[in-house]
């Protein structure tokens, strides 16, 4: 395969798929958190969260690869102030996602140990954090679109 095709077609395609799957994972978490707490939901949340995490790593990795192997080159991106906003928002989203991940694992362990389900207050707080994650993903999409169009360049 031609290196140009790989960098201009295949890599962006994988990146876009990863972004869509990452957002889909977060939406699935939000959907599950809106359902009444049940053993099935508690068991499924860590698995969906693992999918979200894997696709987030894939999104980040393919994004970095696109910076270095895309048409504009890494130097162009690193000198764009909005690109720093993209990376910051991604890191903040990753940090926000830690609390739900820890909760999902804890809830699953509690269920296995004695059958207890999370409280409504815990579910509500966790839903709010997943909403923050999704909002940051939407912000990242806006910022990266601006970056791609040359806004924020020095």
UniProtKB/TrEMBL annotation:
Keyword annotations from UniProtKB, A to Z: Membrane, Transmembrane, Transmembrane helix
Transmembrane segments: 13-31, 51-69, 81-102, 128-148
Pfam families, per database record: DUF2214
Keyword Hydrolase: no
InterPro entries, per the entry: DUF2214_membrane
Superkingdom: Bacteria
Keyword GTP-binding: no
Protein name in the entry: DUF2214 domain-containing protein
Phylogenetic lineage: Bacteria, Pseudomonadati, Pseudomonadota, Gammaproteobacteria, Nevskiales
């Amino acid at each position: 395969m031609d290196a140009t095709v790989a960098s201009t077609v295949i890599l962006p395609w994988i990146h876009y798929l990863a972004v869509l799957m990452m957002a889909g994972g977060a939406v699935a978490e939000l959907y599950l958190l809106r359902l009444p707490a049940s053993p099935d939901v508690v068991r499924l949340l860590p698995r969906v969260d693992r999918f979200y995490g894997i696709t987030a790593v894939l999104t980040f990795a393919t994004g970095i690869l696109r910076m270095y192997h895309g048409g504009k080159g890494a130097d162009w991106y690193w000198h764009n102030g909005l690109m720093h906003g993209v990376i910051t928002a991604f890191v903040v989203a990753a940090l926000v996602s830690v609390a739900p991940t820890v909760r999902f694992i804890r809830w699953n362990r509690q269920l296995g140990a004695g059958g207890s389900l999370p409280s409504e207050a815990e579910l509500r707080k966790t839903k709010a954090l997943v909403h923050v994650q999704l909002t940051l993903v939407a912000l990242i999409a806006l910022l990266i679109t601006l970056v791609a169009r040359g806004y924020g360049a020095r």
